[in-house]
Design goal:
Strand content: 25-35%
CATH topology of the largest domain: Nucleotidyltransferase, domain 5
Number of strands: 10
Number of domains: 2
Strand order of the largest sheet: 3-2-1-4-5
Number of helices: 7
Length: 232
């Protein structure tokens, strides 16, 4: 790609807090974090209306919408993706998809540095974790069994972990230097997110809104069993 888009809208609603932002290059013009899953629907539309007003005042088109496609909450992921697709289509923009854990790790790395391997871990439940080993922009997390993740960490040697829950932090405390993701979230909404998206837009193709899909969808079998009727 020739370079990063100028005005880019960021939507990450896969977990709490949800992060919404508008960037001019790497410079944040609007930043809003939403605490409470029920508030996302109430505040998302208002934020996007503000984005339109600010973009009009700046005299610049909204060329792209960046949206996190997971891993994260079932409902939050779909709300963010649906909103990003609809908004991008209405504005004639294209979409940049990103991994939530990579964005979180980039925010932590901006302050912690990368003098040692940096890993981001989230609880995928059912005895699994989402794991991302930070590399070049454009990496995607994997879903692995908990014990397999711990083996990977042990093999890395001295490393840093951004843990998305206290449970994970406690379990890997003996294997790595651990930071709770709450601290990274405080940095995620500012310039580090803008810098990450700008670098990601250089190496990853923007896609049409219709092509965006939520990752990490799990198939849950729901089988309704009814007693046989007389004569059936």
């Amino acid at each position: 790609m020739a370079g990063a888009p100028k005005l880019i809208v960021a939507v990450d609603t896969v977990t709490e807090p949800a992060t919404l932002a508008l960037f001019d290059g790497q410079r944040p013009l609007l930043v809003h974090q939403i605490f409470g899953a029920r508030m996302v629907l109430a505040e998302l539309g208002n934020f996007l209306a503000r984005v339109v007003a600010v973009a009009a005042g700046a005299g610049e088109p909204i060329s792209s919408v960046a949206v996190s496609v997971g891993p994260g909450g079932f409902s939050g992921s779909r709300i963010g993706v649906a909103a990003a697709k609809s908004f991008a289509k209405a504005r004639g923009a294209r979409v940049l998809v990103f991994d939530h854990l990579e964005a979180l790790g980039h925010a932590a790395a901006a302050e912690l540095g990368r003098d040692r391997p940096l890993v981001v871990l989230d609880d995928a439940r059912r005895g699994q974790w989402h794991m991302l080993l930070m590399g070049e922009p454009g990496s995607s997390s994997k879903t692995l069994d908990t014990l397999e993740c711990e083996r990977h960490l042990a093999a890395l040697g001295p490393c840093r972990v951004v843990a998305c829950s206290e449970g994970i932090a406690g379990r890997v405390a003996g294997l790595a230097q651990v930071e709770l993701a709450a601290d990274a979230f405080a940095r995620l909404a500012g310039s580090p997110l803008g810098a990450y998206l700008a670098s990601l837009a250089v190496v990853r193709e923007l896609i049409e809104p219709e092509s965006v899909e939520v990752r990490y969808v799990r198939e849950y079998e729901a089988v309704a069993k009814f007693p046989p009727r007389d004569g059936a």
